Amino acid sequence: MNYLSIPLPSGVRPVWAAPRDETRLGTILVEAGVLSAEALETALVQQRRSLCRLGELLIRRGLATEDDVYDALARQAGVPRWDPATAPAAPDLIDRLGAAACARDGCLPLATAGAITPVATCNPQTFDAWRARIEKTLGPVAMVMASRGEIDAGLLGTRRQALVRAAEAVPPPHMSCRSFGTAPVRRQAVLAGLAGLLMLLALLAVVAPVTFFVAIASVAILLLLVNIGLLGVGLIGAAKPAGTSPTAPAIARLPRISVLVPLFHECRIAEMLVRRLSQLDYPRELTEICLVTEASDSVTADAIAQTTLPDQMRVFVVPDGTVKTKPRAMNFALPFCSGDIIGIYDAEDAPPADQLHRVVRGFAASPPDVGCLQARLNFYNPQASWLSRCFCVDYATWFALVLPGLRRLGWPIPLGGTSVFFRRDVLERVGAWDAHNVTEDADLGLRLARYGYRVGLLTSTTMEEAPFRTHAWIRQRSRWQKGYAMTWAVHMRAPRRLWQDLGPWRFMGVQTLLLGSLGGALTAPVLWSFGLLWLGLPHPLSGHLTSGQGLALMVLLFLGAVIQALGHWVGLSITGRRGLWASIGLMPVYAALSTVSITKALYEVAARPFFWDKTEHGISPPTTPTIDAPHDPSRA
């Protein structure tokens, strides 16, 4: 290539550029014999229907290699290809721009002894738009061509630990729990405080048992009424006609979607996961599936190595850091993603083939303040045990009634950890995920609300694997409860600020949802104890309630049980799981496990706040679930 020398001060190494070649990329590749004219025409037709660049499409479709495309782009732009051996990445310059920003923009400052800094990029089309911003920091720059893989390798090879530190501190400090439990003294103080509270409650129970029990029972009844009220709002919404769903505008060009799949100790599920996600029918040149693994996890690495990955899948290895959590892994991978929409799947997920298309249509039909879409979740192994069947009932009620009820009330929606999709700019604006929060999904749902965004609900259902053994269920549920407690503590550190961000109505919704969930599990035994009164057995309130009060209490508890059973029945009907109606009778036993799990959760809040008690996958093989034609009054 003939380069033009750029005049520089004496003794400064020059940087070269050649005249720009106005020949189109496809023509250059045809002239070079890389692809035929017919293949180019077909690719151009496909490109017109998407936001994918021609070079990316050719690489994803296997019509050209990365070297073919980026050599042609270098010729077209009149710049050289990057050679890491002669022009290594410059760590100090990367830090000045920010390693995560370099990954997001696909640019890499290179070492130079001259007045002009060469910057490798895999996005020549947007380099001029970035130039002014980069030059404010680095001074004059010149473009050098590199592939996406070369950029990523250069960043990871030089600033890996900087990227790890950034991934662990994305949200602002006042919206993160990373300061919790960092000092042993603080953990000991929390444990001492919990122990002191328990001792005080025990003392009150001995000194004034009736007063103590009346107070606790009043709280329990109030929480029961709140939870029944939430279910009632969902039932009212389900009983109303759905109306006309908003029509999505015609989508001239489909956006790119990046899906993050965090994996940890997944020896059984890798091959099945790849097969399931390969069935997504979104154009593969617009689909990027990122399998995110931990550097210390040789089990998953070996499983993936034995699996052939399709072109749209790639593996990110997250270096060790101060914590090892799913949100930290996703934060690390996010800057390297190319998608306009960012989605999440778990290792055991089996989404329907058209789910990504439904996500795109859902965003297109929604106003800009809908920053996130949550799909429904249910389970493909309900017949594994009574517990997995009850979990199906639980999820059907949550996704078909409770979440639509929260949306109807205008309250923040706690996200699920999977099958959730974000507008990328919104996700980055609100601070992505809190790497230290073990329910990063619920926390992010609240943060979206604080920034003024709403969550839309998709009727598309992703099937998952339900824990079917009691100890596995308790481990998972206790992690969720611990995360709810930490999320509440994070956002209530400055209650006035939370009030200002949300307003009084949604502020009350946060207290109701988070404290109501935790308090309901804690005080449930008090409600169970009233069965002793019904049976005429001794009870702390025996002789202290009038016959009218006792009757009113029994009627209230009976109506509460009926409404809960009705909610489960309607939830199963909406989600097409009528075959599980018989399991509704076991739900009181299932609910009692939440009281067991919350004791573990509260201990870990103080002793192990960042411990991720991982759910093991691939234990229960999929069965053929009984799914009827769902009645679906909700809309995306």
UniProtKB/TrEMBL annotation:
Q: Which residues form the Glycosyltransferase 2-like domain?
A: 342-558
Q: Which ranges form a coiled coil?
A: none
Predominant cellular place of this UniProt entry's protein: membrane
Region spans: Disordered: 617-636
Q: Which GO terms describe its cellular component?
A: membrane
Q: Which residue windows are transmembrane per the record?
A: 189-207, 213-236, 513-537, 549-572, 579-603
Task: Identify the residues that the record assigns to the Type II secretion system protein GspE N-terminal domain, covering every copy.
Answer: 78-154
Keywords assigned by UniProt, alphabetized: Glycosyltransferase, Membrane, Transferase, Transmembrane, Transmembrane helix
Q: Which residues form the signal peptide?
A: none
GO terms for MF: glycosyltransferase activity
Looking up SUPFAM superfamilies in the UniProt record yields:
EspE N-terminal domain-like (SSF160246), Nucleotide-diphospho-sugar transferases (SSF53448)
User: Which top-rank group of organisms is this from?
Assistant: Bacteria
**Topology relative to the membrane:** Multi-pass membrane protein
Q: Which Gene3D superfamilies match?
A: Spore Coat Polysaccharide Biosynthesis Protein SpsA, Chain A (3.90.550.10)
Q: Give the UniProt subcellular location, in the record's own words.
A: Membrane
Identification of the protein by name: Glycosyltransferase, catalytic subunit of cellulose synthase and poly-beta-1,6-N-acetylglucosamine synthase
- Organism, per UniProt? Palleronia pelagia
